[in-house]
Amino acid sequence: MRMLEDFKIVHDYDNYQDSLTDYRFTQYKSSTNVPGFTEKADYLKQFFGE
Fold first, then answer.
1. Res. 24 pLDDT band, cuts 50 70 90
2. Is the pLDDT of residue 43 over 80?
3. Where in the sequence is the domain holding 39, given as residue range(s)?
4. CA 32 to CA 14: how far, in whole Å?
């Protein structure tokens, strides 16, 4: 059972890191005025709080 819990923790951590990467990329694209990314950045801001 411990192994399954550890796997979930690692999986959650990986998902969180991927989310941060996507958020940073979205902020970058938003700053270059690429259509759609400003709205996405505004939406994601609620989860990452800046």
1. very high
2. yes
3. 2-48
4. 27
